[in-house]
Amino acid sequence: MDLLNPNKLYEELSNSKQNSLNFWGPVPHSFSHAVDLSLNLIKDDMNEGNNQNLEELQTFLISYHKSLGIFSETVMTNISNLNFGSVIVGHQPIIFGGPGFIGNKLACLNHLKSIYDKKKINISPIFFIGDYDGMQKELARVYYPNPISFNATIVSSDGYFNEESDLVSHSALLPPITWLEENILKIEHSINGFKGQLKGKDSKILEERWNHIVTLLKTSFNSTSTLSEWASKLWGTITNIINDFGIVYLPTSHPVVRKLVFKHYLKFIQNSTTYTHEFQQANDQLIQLGFEPSLPHRHLDYSPFILECTNDFNRIPTMINQVGEEFFASGTCNQCKTDFKYNVSNEEELEKIAEIIGPRVDTSQAIFQDLLNIVIRISGPGEIAYYSQVAPAVRSIGFNTPIFVKYKRAYYNSNWNEKLGKLIESRNSASLHNNKLFDILRKRITSLKENNNLELQQSEILMENYIDETYQSLINGKQNNDIQKYLGWQFGRFTKDKMGQEVSWVWIDFALMTGLNDYLSTYQRMYTDESTLGGKYYINTSI
User: Fold this and answer.
1) Are 350 and 304 in contact (CB under 8 A)?
2) I need a labelling partner for 223 at 20 to 30 A (CA). Which of 110, 119, 199, 487 fits?
3) Which SS3 state, helix, strand or coil, does residue 306 take?
């Protein structure tokens, strides 16, 4: 029997309005329910704990946001609200800002913040900049739809970033401006191919929106020096300057930040037997239920952090071993072949290397949990899957865990998607662009007007099923060039292992339909307080 992804279990629990205390903890069945579940985790006293580390973090964050030009009064308010607690989402920095789902994450974050606001509850929305991972292909290239085929227009690092290396992304320096300009032209060439399908005002609007995006890309690039700063400046400008969301960006690998949380690794080091045992228990339970764990088992030499080479900033495969009453972290740099070994038995020893250790997927949230009082974590399918293993294990060694919320995957319309979809539909092929799509959209609109939460959730489940069924019909049906293009443009399938429009295509593709001013708000309108968690939805927008 094939094992299922734990995402399925999360959505089953959410839709059945049951809880799973053995995995994620309470699983909410809507966004408002997630907020309600989190209320007992929020502090009601700004001076509670008199947290000196938090005050130091707040001072740093003010300076950081001002230095990047993404500071505002709303940002200041939300930095101050860190005293009460936070809702978080995050991602690694990616060239050109990355795929569209990052914008989706930010919109989901802002929607949750709006629910707290309506309840007059102070909370801080935080975007984790996950710049502690090594450089990978998915960080060093993005894809744009190709106007003449299902293949992608690939924008890569052109050798400036090693796409499969151990270099930590926070140390990755930006290429020269000529690299940016050349790749902007590559995207523009593809855009012009689609632009030929537009007439009059629509063509002019597309050009104006593209010029606005190019200005953002160039100004954010020219005022930063690293990949991490560029991504933060780009998204920070969209969320905090073009919009007034006041998102707080947390550079998790900055030396100031690392020195505020390093001590929390000790819980993992000193309780490795408990941690690895509970991790394996969660693995075994998932398998018994018919689900496949997404992370390998942790052994007693597991290290909760990764050492970074002091010679070349590469990530070092790290293990921790106990010798007598002491613990030592050790590893060899794959690049320079230098051996490293550090005593990590107590806070004093660990502090000496605080600036050269980065978290693992298990620990990236846990080490910040106390400092930020994280009450909700917004996650995609990958994180939801591995937190089914991680959450029980970190709870077993004394960490609190937040409420886990799965955001929706989005599919969206464009003028050329609609034209092609109607063409293949007229040939009796499966297509999203037919009357059934609009029936489901009308059902949702009616449910919102009538405040019918059950009908709302049913319409969202109908939409997910409709998207999945149409995709499978297209994959299994007779193939031709137009169907292949539709699978690429509308579903993001430019290779066999790709499926997900906003997962495949750089955020620019959707922003051209909405304009920068309404880009995130268009995503946010996909969410309501009573929306189902996870799943897929279709946004019917065009120029």
Assistant:
1) no
2) 110
3) strand
